[in-house]
Amino acid sequence: MIPMIRAVSFDLWFTLIWEDQEDEKLYTKMRIEAIHSSLRDMGFQISLDEIYKAYAGTKEFRLFTGAEELIRIILLSLGLNVDEKAVKKIAEAYDKSTDSFKPKVNEEAIDVIPRLKEEGLKIAVTTSTSFSGRAVRSLLRNVGIDCVDCVISSSDIGYVKPQRQIFIKLMEELGVEGKSIVHVGDSYIQDVGAINSGLKAVYYPKLKRDWMECRIAPVIKSLRELPDLIFQFPENPSI
Fold first, then answer.
1. 232 pLDDT tier (thresholds 50, 70, 90)
2. pLDDT at residue 210 in the model
3. Which of 1, 20, 57, 190 has its CB 3.0 to 4.6 Å from that of 161, i.e. a possible disulfide?
4. 118, 128 contact by CB (below 8 A)
5. pLDDT tens digits for 16-57?
């Protein structure tokens, strides 16, 4: 019998990988320096501090704004007016600036994802993040996770979890119905919220300091529980 579950979607931060304040400072520095270098090559003398202040001002909407639009906003804050070709060049440098960044990895993910692939399941990452899907793939490769079929990033599509649009995009990219996808993550609202879009959900709050009681989805303490749990869904649809 073909199992009901055909794909597993993972949250990114604090599920597969994680960061601390020093990590955030490092990749922010990479981004700022990339913008600074691009502007300098174009003849603009803008300080790193000025760029940092403009970048910091985008915090509230960075998760749902793509690189090109983000750069337009930063340039506006800096009082610069450049053509679209220059915007694209700076945005590309910004997006690629973190390609060498290596976050901390959840070793459980290193073990489990290949096992799920061996079972014939598609693997996706669905994340609310300021990193593009392309940049997320680089982060994952840097920590040894390179067997992901698709990455859905909020900054690429303009929606964040648990908005339905991000999970609809996931279903479209995988070519799999929501009822056949299990989404796994550390946020009760963002990740267990996948249920509202017709997906199944598993709550994994291990790496979070604060977590909520969950009565509407399975709760796991280790990603290593997933292979056995996933194939219980067809036998017990109430899980």
1. confident
2. 62
3. 190
4. no
5. 999 999 999 999 999 999 999 999 999 999 999 999 999 999
Q: CA 186 to CA 223: how far, in whole Å?
A: 11
- Residue 216 has a pLDDT of 87
Torsion of CA 142, 146, 149, 153, to 10 degrees: -10
> Is residue 217 over pLDDT 80?
yes
Q: Are residues 14 and 114 in the same domain?
A: yes
Q: Which residue has the higher pLDDT, 1 or 79?
A: 79
What is the number of other CB atoms lying within 10 angstroms of the CB of residue 58? 16
Residue 124 in contact with residue 153, Cβ under 8 Å? no
CA–CA separation, 162 and 87 (whole Å)? 31
List, in order, residues 6 or more apart from 68 with CB less than 8 Å away.
87, 88, 91
**Burial environment of residue 29 by CB neighbours within 10 A (0 to 12, 13 to 18, 19 or more):** middle
Containing domain of residue 71, as a range? Answer: 21-96
CATH code, domain carrying 42: 1.10.150
Same domain, 196 and 90: no
- Strand, helix or coil for residue 158: coil
**17 three-state secondary structure:** strand
> What is the pLDDT at residue 238?
43
